[in-house]
Amino acid sequence: MIYLDNNATTKVDEKVLEAMLPFLKEEYANPSSMYDFAKKPATAIKEARAQVRDFLGAENEKDIFFTSCGSESANTAIKGVLNCNKEKRHIITTKVEHPCVINTYKELEKNGYEVDYIGVNSQGQLDIEDLKSKLRKDTALVSVMWANNETGVIYPVEEIAEIIKTKSPETRFFVDAVQAAGKIPINVKDTKIDLLGISGHKFHAPKGVGVLYVKPDVRITPLINGGHQERGLRAGTQNVPYIVGIGKAAELAQSALDYELKEVKRLRDRLEDGILKNVFNARLNTAISGRVPNTTNIGFEYVEGELILLHLSDIGVCASSGSACTSGSLEPSHVLRAMGIPFTALHGSIRFSLSRFTTEKEVDFVIEQMPAIMDKLASISPFQDELEKLRNLRK
Ligand code: PLP
Are 208 and 242 in contact (CB under 8 A)? Predict the structure, then answer.
């Protein structure tokens, strides 16, 4: 099996699992209890918080809150900020956010909020001038993802934070950094970002644990009320093994960052170049630069993405079309539509996302197999004339 769908989820690193196991077996005490048996789990949470603090470059452990996933982090940030600023009813976001952000805003619109969705150009880059012009005195919140899950395009969130704080200092800024964590450096201390969310299962921790960073002077309300865990911001007995897991994964991701930026990028580029050169109807859906190092999104013109995925699956290759949350529906990706990707490639766009566990042999296997898959699919496509033209053009 060749796993090239690491933006959907990643495998748990053995070292992460090792760190978690004692807390699934012997050390099962509730970390909030008073007896000695609870000390190890409580200390382990403290340690994990410090690991995540260092990973995100936060000033203080107190700024780190453990959640159950990236979606919970985003929902807590968005609803928590708005609850504390009830008089402000305007929000700015982008057209290419993950469904956990977009769908939260769609719901808020039904409750009377006014939301501006900023567009992107054909390469997926954000219209910053438009964002600037939409900022108002009553803008409660701006949210922009750090990196896009489908295309890997990086958004200049540090620059956007500066713009927001210069023009409207009271406006809060939330960054969904789920696809940036472990792929590019994150250092919130040097930025004016107010809130930032990440998710463990995207960087080799298990599914079911996330983090929300909240800058010290930012007030938010909890999404889940109950006990005083996570300083009252997120009730529920803390999931010690998973918190330990995300802490360890953060530490490992930090030390693997150079490898990610150089070696994973080299393999991604090799895969991308190989496919673009050898497959006659392939086109890169983004610019070459300004992307996280592990992701490529390639459009295969005049063929159906689902068919490509099934043929890849038959030879043991896992990739995806659109995000895991939207695949299964035949609607073309909202991200690629926002970019204005031509209709001819929209339905045949595939995301390959690598990890530090991807090998050159795996990449070369995919490069070798793609032309035959595409020839087969092209032969059953109803667009024979168009495909013939493309073939001649690329000769
Ligand atoms: N944000 C982005 C950019 C994502 O890619 C994802 C997951 O695909 C999420 C948020 C949601 O994360 P989770 O699956 O942990 O809820």
Answer: yes
